[in-house]
Amino acid sequence: MNALWFRRDLRLTDNYAMYALENELEYDKKADWFAFYHVDPVFLEEKCLHHHYFFQQVRAFERECREKGITLHFIYGSRPFQTLLSAVPELSAVYFNEDEAAWEAERDKAIQDYLHENGVQTYAYPDAHFHHSGDVMKKDGSPYKIFTPYFRAWQMLPKPRPYPCCLERFQQRQADPDLQDTHERALQEMDTFDAAMNREASPISESEAIQKMNTFIHEDLSNYENSRDIPAEEATSRLSPLIKTGRLSVRTIYSALEPYVEQGSSAAQKYLAELAWRDFYNMIHAHFPDLKKKEMNEKYRNMQWEYQENQWERWKNGMTGFPFVDAAMRQLNSEGWLHNRGRMAAASFLVKDYHIDWKLGEDYFRRQLIDYDPSSNAGGWQWTASTGSDAAPYFRVFSPVRQSKRFDPDGIYIKTHVPELNHVPVRFIHEPWKMDDAAAEKAACLPGHDYPLPDVTHKTAAQQAIEMFKGDRNV
């Protein structure tokens, strides 16, 4: 009996492991199979937006499977494969899509070793990215550390095509393992988790994910290049949560995008580069497994970071007194998603204005982002903190006011997420602390009362950060 292990690949089309299993079913007419998803109690214990969104997609996927004649079994517990082998002693093989980076890769290796010791074959496939972490390397076999030459080499490789899956074959060859008890326990625990979160669900079906992709590529792509940096505009694809959960495959996206790339569309090329960054950071993470825990640049591993609880709370809650940063953090906390310009501005402020360790910010984003990807998130934070691969130079410090004026000139994004500034005139929206009493009264927003005053002077804080990186304040 074969098992198909779903993980972050919650779809029944263009799924590499599913495609491989179908080939086995076609080859061996007597073979059967079943599908399962492991509900790990560790992820249910941590109540956060990231986990809530993911489990909502899991539940939606299970319903879709049912509607299409596929049974998705849930296995609950910290030792899923002991449960699986106990309930299904005739298990012969497990098919799944691999993880390459850090502890996820170590977990997969340990599971494979355990199954092999118990006579079960495993078949793992690269599915989440275009290319395996070892596919795009320098001529000397070492990994790239700069994105631009990586992207040039990445573009030269042919891109994999979507993998077709015949659901009828899967429907006809399903096994019926005795997993009812663990399935029911998983459902109960997920229900308890949902109740504790007390948050409206926002799952999206696989067909809706594909429709969302088509709308962006065929209708909105032309506006992407010029407006992608403006957070007040709906100019980005918003596909990242669907890619993260596997509701949408990068191969499917490329298949729809390719005609525009071939036509020479600069917008398509720009979007393709964003997809390539995922591969790049996955490659970095696979070769540098401590990406989330340690600065890639060794000379910054003894930074004398500061930490003040009140500043940490102000940053998390969007109460720094800098409207653009606060709008970004409030969007993150309310939506579980954050425009990339907001991600960079908020991250830079934490590191280079508050001088708080980037690893704390990375972990906060982990909990809040519904599109959280460990490689991209850690890589992005190290880029902003000037400690990682192809990072911004340490003397490049984002000005929260300049970012605000440049990318939200009319304050539309700010007013969307910081309602206490709704009536502040444009000339003060980026620096509300400059309002005089008359302007503040008219705007019904008294700085320091209705909206916080900044507790740092950006120019001074930025210079202190530069001194830290130069070594003047290192340990």
UniProtKB/TrEMBL annotation:
GO biological process, one term: response to light stimulus
Pfam entry (one): DNA_photolyase
InterPro entries listed in its UniProt record: Crypto/Photolyase_FAD-like_sf, Crypto/Photolyase_N_sf, Cryptochr/Photolyase_FAD-bd, Cryptochrome/DNA_photolyase_1, DNA_photolyase_N, Rossmann-like_a/b/a_fold
Ligase as UniProt keyword: no
Residue intervals passing through the bilayer: none
Site residues by UniProt (Electron transfer via tryptophanyl radical): 305, 358, 381
Cofactor binding note of this UniProt entry: Binds 1 FAD per subunit.
A molecular-function term among this protein's GO annotations: DNA binding
Domain Photolyase/cryptochrome alpha/beta: 1-130
Residues the entry annotates as binding FAD: 224, 236-240, 271, 274-281, 371-373
Needed co-factor(s): FAD
Keyword line: Chromophore, FAD, Flavoprotein, Lyase
Family affiliation: Belongs to the DNA photolyase family.
Protein name: Deoxyribodipyrimidine photo-lyase
Higher taxonomy: Bacteria, Bacillati, Bacillota, Bacilli, Bacillales
